[in-house]
Design a protein that fits this description.
heterodimer, A: about 400 residues, B: about 90 residues, mainly alpha, about 55% helix, about 0% strand
Amino acid sequence: MNATAVVTGVGVTAPNGLGTDAYWAATLRGENGIDRLAHFDPSGYPVQLAGEVPGFDVKEHLPNRLIPATDRTTQLALTATAWALDDAHVVPAELSEFGMGVTTAASAGGFEFGQQQLEKMWSEGNQHVSAYQSIAWFYAVNTGQISIRHGMRGPSGVLVSEQAGGLDAVAQARRQIRKGSDLIVSGGVDGPFCSWSLISQWTSGRLTESSDPDHAYQPFDSAAAGHVPGEGGAILVVEGEQSARRRGVTDSYGEVAGYAATFDPRPGSEREPGLRRAIDTALAEARVSPADVDVVFADAAGDPGLDLVEATAIAEVFGPGAVPVTAPKTMTGRLYGGGAPLDLVAALLSIRDNIIPPTVNVVLAPRYEIDLVSGTPRNASVNTALVLARGQDGFNSAVLLRAT
Amino acid sequence: MAANEEMTIDDLRRVLRDSAGEEEGVNLDGDIIDVEFAELGYDSIALLETGGYVERERGVSLDEESVTAAKTPRTFLAVVNDSLSNGSGP
């Protein structure tokens, strides 16, 4: 039995860096990965900006057989997974295939692949639709392809709770570890850019129309006017501490020590939003008091109402300005199912390096009573980090990470 | 290559590469006519994709179950060439 779930490996594909080291270095430099959308010409669309993963040539990373079968987001997920397994020194063939599972977060699956096939169907006929469409569009596709590629046949699934999904997936991984699995590949890679997908996201009403990358996604700023969508994310190898030790691994990035998920009351209700309760419950589960939390990675919606809910919850739990708060996702945009896993990696690297990455392009509005780490990174002793994520339509999740 | 000409193993090699890709460590140019598709790295979806490619290229209609039941290139080619000689159009 594994009582403790630790993260033994990470792999990153982010708009401001391909690979964990590139991402972390860029993040500490405050390098913005948001730019004019390049996947297709956005003139004529309301959204002009995106966080796109730079310099990804799939042929350098994946075997030829997988390329015609997969959407770009799956290709990024498979690449991040290979890196994470490598980082954890895991050789799947040496481990029990039923002891390893896969649980990722997703919001859309292979949207761009789907759009291309639909276009073929109406322009050339149904004989021209790829057989791979049957699996490539589906939001469980990353979990499935990771499982098949690495021979992981243990408990597996996919969590779909918009931006909160990445935390929910890692919590589900921890649940499976506690039930007896050795290792679960978790996290998420998401955020396809095709016109169909972008227009679907546009209906949320939360995307910014800004065309200035440095004045587009500005949570906790009085200029906040929505967010920039981004692609990518992170894959984490979540492993039982004992299982890791059995294969000779004693080093880990940190423990998934606390988790909670809540749901908001119905719109128009007088009741309090669920975020504060998620924070309280996650801390209680980890037996950590607010004073012992060293940094909070905010959800940072970039919407004035939602930013106020979050700043208020943080100030109520920790005290006004009492804990450093940061949102490195201001450099990537919001990555949907990939966003929270990327924040988890940033938090684990903060613990490793004792440094808090900055929030960029934000001038903190006085009505938010938080200590926002802004502009440049801050050196600090970091042993515990709280990561918050909210999914549209009421999902709130919190994960407490602790140094091991 | 005319549409009604018999499909050869070389045609199949090309179609497999174009539609489903080539598994690392597998030599498609070797003597593969009786090697099982599973060993060559192709699953049932890869065969469906390959069958669809042949249908578009040859203007022929293939029975889906026969395509995915084909275990080797020899049986796959037999399915295609039977359809071609029977002239079963789309």
